[in-house]
Write a structure and sequence with these properties.
- Helix content is about 25%, strand content about 35%.
- The chain has about 160 residues and is an alpha/beta fold.
- It is globular.
């Protein structure tokens, strides 16, 4: 049956779902690095975690072990993923240090960015990339575009 109301099928929420080779260790890492709070987990009798939900502030991120027999794979160890999770935090420098101390690899030191954030980039021990940012100024999209263009004119393309 089709509902004629155009608003009836709007997306309500988005939940990133991270697949890992060791979900229990990943959950521990996310708790140490980002102060995530575990809501619950479903563990099969053999020990693999089929599903867990963690709260990162008000946001939910789901985690599971990989299940190759169902086509569910964790990122390859030496291959960057095609996505990242961006966390807005109060103090990007402190959160970056906390994540690195918990075992993350620092990819980009915290630095002020053209789009009005102080931002850093890390890779967790499970192959997932995280962008960490704290707002340092309000920047309009038009001003962001002007700064973005200027960056390329100056030859500085690192974002």
């Amino acid at each position: 049956m089709t509902n004629s109301n155009a608003d009836s099928n709007q997306i309500k929420e988005v939940f990133p779902y991270l697949r890992t080779r060791d979900a229990a260790a990943a959950i521990d890492f996310y708790q140490q690095a980002f102060e995530a709070v575990e809501d619950f987990r479903l563990t099969e009798p053999g020990g693999r975690i089929g599903h867990a939900e963690l709260k990162f502030g008000a946001a939910t991120i789901m985690v599971s072990d990989e299940y190759p027999e169902y086509g569910i794979h964790a990122p390859a160890e030496s291959t960057p993923t095609g996505s990242a999770i961006h966390l807005h935090v109060q103090d990007v420098d402190a959160m970056t240090q906390q994540a690195v101390q918990a075992g993350a690899t620092l990819i980009m030191e915290p630095a002020d960015q053209f789009y009005g954030e102080r931002a850093a980039k890390i890779r967790d021990p499970f192959g997932h990339e995280w962008l960490l940012g704290s707002e340092i100024e309000k920047v309009t999209p038009a001003e962001m575009q002007r700064r973005f263009n200027a960056m390329f004119e100056e030859g500085d393309q690192e974002c």
